[in-house]
Design a protein that fits this description.
The complex is a heterodimer of chains A (247) and B (286). Chain A has 247 residues and is α/β, with parallel strands linked by helices. Chain A is globular and about 50 Å long. In chain A, the strands form two sheets. In chain A, strands 6-7-8-4-9-10 form a six-stranded mixed beta sheet, sandwiched between helices. In chain A, strands 1-5-2-3 form a four-stranded mixed beta sheet, covered by helices on one side. Chain A contains eight helices and ten strands. In chain B, helix 5 runs parallel beside helix 8, helix 6 packs across helix 8 and helix 11 runs antiparallel to helix 12. The chains are: A alpha/beta (247), B mainly alpha (286).
């Protein structure tokens, strides 16, 4: 792989002529993309649109993929996976301190766990936690290392709707406190609209829509939603009409 | 079974005209898997065999020179135990078995770690152990005798080499089978090599190692049966061999029972260790 990882100046992200391919198929082809420090960006797109490929490129998890280009990402990065990815044999607090050393990191881990509402659960094994609690531990693990860039790959995709809403509020609060730059992949337009300051729609590895939605009214919000869905190839009104037509 | 008539009675007393909902509660789901047997159920087979054996012996169908009756064996066993004859032999056997087990476990574990955690190790070790696996332990005895003589060293060495195989295979499989997702996690949390081994690789391979150990503890006793027939002056195998010369089938049965008991006892100890060490798997219900 001939991608050039440049040392970062700030917590900004900058990509130029970034391409990734699996065999013959081009999975990602981004010409130029800049994400400002502290910006909360949501990536949406259909399956195979390249959103996860882009995220993995930013995370540096694609050493086995062929590609080229120029990536500028901050040094301190954290990844939040769709599965909480906790080590089942390690206690909650040990999961949070992975990769960190010293007694100070344990103190920080306790604080971080308290932040996500899991104070007192430090010595439990992950199997004793619910799915939402496990994902909160993963969130604590991501934030305890004070990342400049938080990368999240459909982090709430496996949670039930109510838990997901609670997680949205939690994430919004914690991001407001820590101020990392955030890139969050989701397939859920509503999630993207409720979390992101900026929404990018990917299709066939390209950014086809780049929005900074600032809805003031409910109607603004509906229009924005409609626009994003249209970019994803979903026409809701027509779909509804089609369903209404009697056979 | 008895609830059906009682419910029908109740219904006739109350006189409810609609019985459909009540009847539905009687419908049993077809069982796709057989119900689990309790300890009593599991004992049925061995108990039946024991009864058949005793009956055959008592009726003269099974003459004592072929096989002693279970009752005779129990009496002989008690005599050998109370007279203090059995214990020194048991101790000698246990010493061989567990010395071999300890040595084989350390070796197997060391080889598995070397082979599972480095490419060079895998290239040099794995195929060799696989070849060793294909050779039965007993086939190594002639060579072992030439190299190490017919004393204790040879016996412990043969037990160690046979025990090494299940420990190696299962630990190595455990290391190789560590979820790729955890490797990714280690990468994103910027764990060092040492921390990865300590916090991910070793705990990940522990279930495999313990499975290997369970196989190994019974295997070390199995190997004794043959080894103690070679130039031994004490040990359960020696006692059985001598009994063969004198035609004492009851003593042979006692020896077999001791081997089985020691194997099962060792297995249950490892099983208990396994339960403790892997307690993190228990969920909310425990």
């Amino acid at each position: 792989m001939s991608t050039h990882h440049a040392p970062p100046a700030t917590s900004a992200v900058h990509l130029r002529r970034l391409s990734r391919s699996y065999g013959e198929k081009t999975a990602l082809s981004v010409d130029d993309l800049t994400i400002a420090p502290g910006e909360f960006v949501c990536l949406i797109g259909r399956s195979g649109s390249g959103k996860s490929t882009l995220l993995r490129a930013l995370a540096g998890l694609d050493n086995d993929v062929t590609g080229s280009g120029h990536i500028e990402v901050p040094e301190r990065r954290s990844v939040l996976f769709q599965d909480s990815r906790l080590l089942p044999w390690a206690s909650v607090v040990d999961n949070v301190t992975l990769g960190l050393k010293g007694e100070a990191s344990r103190v920080a881990a306790r604080d971080s766990l308290a932040d996500v509402g899991l104070a007192g659960r430090e010595s439990d094994y992950p199997s004793r936690l619910s799915g939402g609690e496990q994902q909160r531990v993963a969130l604590a693990r991501s934030l305890v290392r004070e990342p400049q860039l938080l990368l999240a790959d459909e982090p709430f995709g496996a949670l039930d709707a109510l838990t997901r809403l609670r997680m949205h509020a939690l994430l919004r609060r914690l991001v407001a406190e820590h101020r990392p730059t955030v890139v969050l992949v989701t397939h859920d337009v509503d999630e993207a609209l409720s979390l992101g300051e900026r929404v990018l729609v990917l299709e066939d590895g390209r950014v086809v829509l780049d929005r900074r939605p600032t809805p003031r009214t409910a109607q603004d919000r509906l229009d924005e939603r409609q626009r994003l869905l249209a970019a994803l190839g979903v026409d809701e009104r027509n779909a509804d009409q089609r369903l209404d037509v009697p056979a | 079974m008895t609830t059906t008539p009682i419910r029908q009675q109740e219904r006739s007393h109350v006189g409810t005209p609609t019985g459909t909902t009540e009847e539905r509660s009687h419908v049993r789901l077809a069982r796709l898997a057989p119900r689990q047997l309790g300890p009593v159920g599991l004992a049925i087979g061995p108990l039946a065999a024991l009864v058949l054996w005793q009956v055959s012996s008592s009726t003269g169908l099974l003459p004592p020179q072929q096989l002693a009756s279970p009752w005779t064996a129990v009496t002989t066993g008690r005599e050998m135990f109370t007279s203090g004859e059995l214990l020194p032999h048991l101790a000698a056997s246990a010493k061989r078995a567990y010395l071999g087990l300890a040595l084989g476990t350390v070796l197997g574990l060391g080889l598995a770690l070397a082979s599972g955690l480095s490419r060079a190790g895998e290239a040099s070790i794995d195929s060799l152990v696989q070849v060793k696996r294909a050779i039965p332990t007993l086939a190594l005895i002639p060579l072992a005798i030439l190299w190490l003589g017919i004393g204790e060293t040879m016996k412990v060495a043969v037990i160690a080499t046979s025990v090494l195989v299940p420990i190696y295979i299962n630990t190595h499989a455990g290391l190789r089978g560590i979820d790729h997702r955890y490797v990714e996690l280690a990468q994103t949390t910027e764990m060092g090599r040492a921390e990865f081994v300590r916090r991910v690789a070793l705990p990940g391979a522990l279930p495999g190692f313990l499975t290997g150990l369970r196989l190994a503890v019974t295997m070390c006793w199995t190997a004794l049966v043959v080894l103690e027939q070679i130039n031994a002056t004490e040990g359960i195998g020696y006692v059985m061999n001598r009994a063969r010369d004198f035609g004492q089938t009851d003593v042979i049965v006692v020896g077999l029972v001791v081997y089985a008991a020691m194997g099962l006892l060792s297995d249950s100890v490892v099983k208990a260790v396994q339960r403790r060490a892997l307690s993190y798997r228990k969920g909310l219900g425990s």
